[in-house]
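pls ignore typos typing on phone
S-adenosylmethionine + seq
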Amino acid sequence: MTLTARALRERCAREMDNARGFAGCTWLHRAFLAVPREHFVPDRVWWPARGEDGLYNLYDRTQKPRAWLKAVYMPGVPLITQIDDGAVPPTGPATGAFTSSISSPGVVIELVRHLAPEPGERILEVGTGTGYTTALLTHRAGDHGNVVTIEIDAGLARRARHRLHALGMSPRVVTGDGEQGHPACAPYDRILATASVRSIPPAWLRQLRPGGILLAPLDSPFGHDLLVRLEADGHGCARGHFVAAVEFMRARGQRAQRPYAELGWPAEADPGPWERMCVVAGPSGQRIRSR
Ligand SMILES: C[S@@+](CC[C@H](N)C(=O)[O-])C[C@H]1O[C@@H](n2cnc3c(N)ncnc32)[C@H](O)[C@@H]1O
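k done
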């Protein structure tokens, strides 16, 4: 039997109920079921794990539409939409550094659940990618010019804007360096980064309203990124803790490695579990300590 996109979306939502604790979050269920994820996925995408030949395989919608659609709705699978900043054309199996993707359904749900946007809120997303997360945010927060998304790659931003418009959605899609935020529409109630950073850009803190929430993947010495959720204190700082272990592509300006001690992490070899750490970010940097 061939499952339709709608049936696959419903099945994916049921699978995430078991695995991700998204059961009971009615508004998020509604958004997930309302937004056609397949609409945001390019016809040709790479599978995120290497094959036996060491290359990432290409999924081509025109050649294998059912395999492509099934991949779109696998709860734990991100699909790669760009390698080496676009230097590798999507014409066959390839290798290189992943520079854009549509995050897996499970991870997107996790992000939006922790961000917990409310209807009418002003939201900034950093890292538009395909525009899929933007569509979920717009579905929840409304479409009154209150959702802004910024993407550093002009081609990706243009394609995401077209996809959103084709669904009748008109969030503001900006091309630019998201590390600077988008001051023209600040202050924001929520800021969500979908590219990871090594240190929280001070512009995000300046552009959050007092009590506003910032959610971002932060590089960590634990061997993976950690999703940090911070609340702005109204005096230029934000405080909070880590809510999940994740894996994201690095923001372009923060690709170079830096010593963790320089980034505010504890100097001890064993600082204890990340679940017990608190994070304070301010204009002059961040500080991470065990609670
Ligand atoms: C994991 S993808 C985003 C996935 C996206 N949210 C979606 O739903 O498809 C990360 C994106 O961040 C973008 N990016 C990297 N550095 C950036 C920066 N400094 N400002 C804005 N976007 C950036 C990349 O080009 C990439 O498209």
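The radius of gyration is 19 Å. Residues 99-103, 126-127, 129-130, 132-133, 150-153, 156, 177-179, 194-195, 248-249, 251-253 surround S-adenosylmethionine (CB under 6 Å). more later
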